[in-house]
Amino acid sequence: MDALAEKYYPWSPYVSCGDDPVDAVDIDGDSIFYFKPIIKQREVIGYIPFYCKETNNQYKFYSKNGKCYTGKNVFMGQVLKALKLLSLTPTGKKLINTLLGRKNIIIKYGKNETTGNVVSWNNAIEIGGINENGNITRPTYIALGHELAHAVDQLYKKTEYGIWTKGPNSEDIPNTEKYATYIENEIRAEAKLPLRTHYAIIGNKGYEPTRIIDKKTKKNLFYGN
Fold first, then answer.
1. Does 46 or 172 have the greater pLDDT score?
2. Among 84, 92, 116, 144, which residue is least crowded by beta carbons within 10 Å?
3. Which of 192, 193, 189, 194 lies closest to 223, judged by CA?
């Protein structure tokens, strides 16, 4: 989860799927899903599942019957654009392919966080950690990469569970943020973007107990050494 994500959204992909939308979809193979809401009279009455796969080096959404989605759903377009940008980096490409081939993952519109195999992401949230230049914004596809890293972590147990440290507001920060920020910085480096220095911030500076790279060497303090 992103330490600075603050927006919450009311709808869930579980409403019409017996609390387990993936089990309600009969599609061969593992994939990344998006459940497109069916809206009538301004109310969500159900969801249509679409799964993502790579075709000719492009990520596209397909319906249950295998038909490529060509509609104008804004969020679906944003997800595909973010996946494309992630795939331009070796780490991002590996991250996506790992999830496409391992287990069903659901992407839904909401604050940036991951719970189990459900990844919530919002293309409008640019705030996320502080970088080497003191900037607290980042490209939103980097945020999606961060959340997908959480999904990989939960699948492969990359991080010990438990609490890493207390945040600036005495909140618990889990160890899982170590791996997610490591992958985030790998993607940043490959995309030639400034590295994230801390998980959390206090005032306009990084919160030192959550530092993730060495001040001088820029190497990750937990992984890759």
1. 172
2. 116
3. 189
Residue 146 lies in a domain: yes
Report the alpha-carbon distance of residue 212 to residue 220 in Å, rounded: 6
Contact 138, 12 (CB under 8 A): no
C-beta neighbour count of 168 within 10 angstroms: 15
Domain range holding 116? 22-210
Domains identified in the chain, total number: 1
Contacts 24+ apart (CB under 8 A), 209-215: 209/165, 209/166, 210/164, 210/165, 210/167, 210/173, 210/177, 212/178, 212/181, 212/182, 212/185, 213/185
Integer Cα distance of 75 and 88 in angstroms: 20
- pLDDT greater at residue 12 or residue 67: 67
Q: Which helix (H) or strand (E) holds 61?
A: strand 58-62
Q: Is the pLDDT of residue 222 over 90?
A: yes
pLDDT of residue 225: 67
